[in-house]
Structure formats: C-alpha cells, structure tokens
Amino acid sequence: MEIDRPGDAPLTEEQEAVLASFRSKLEAILSDGRVDPLEVQALVNDFRSHRELSSRMMDVMGELWPADVDVTRPQWD
Q1: pTM of whole model > 0.85?
Q2: Where are the domains of the chain?
Q3: Which of 24, 37, 39, 40 sits in a 20 to 30 Å window from 73, CA-based?
Q4: pLDDT digits (tens, 9 = 90+) for 6-52
C-alpha cells in the first residue's frame, strides 16, 4: 500500500518563495544567537499559515537551529 504524503510533491514557485522567506526569517532571528518569545510565535504563525509546508519548514529549522539556543527562558538585554 502506498501512502500519499503532501510534503513529497514538488513545490510550486509560490511555495518555494514562502520557504525561502521562512529560511531568511529564521536566519535573521538566529543571527545574534538569542531568540525571544515573540520571534518564536512568529515562526509558529508561519507553520499555521502554511501547513502544507510544515514538514519542509521543520527540515529548515533542523538545518539552521543551533542546539544551544534555549527558548524555554526569556533572554532579556
């Protein structure tokens, strides 16, 4: 039996643009090594807005997100 996985289908140009924008946003958020709760919420909103791309967004996060960034505690200046 073959299972249809929407994330396996080729991306449209629009989806490629959304994924590129997500990657850029994540790179900008992580550039200073600190993540605040509002930035995390913005990423969650992207996942909710583009559910069909969520597995690919997780792949991008896996590539870029450093293991030492802790989002469980606020980091204030």
Answers
A1: no
A2: 12-64
A3: 24
A4: 556 788 999 999 999 999 999 998 887 777 889 889 999 999 999 99
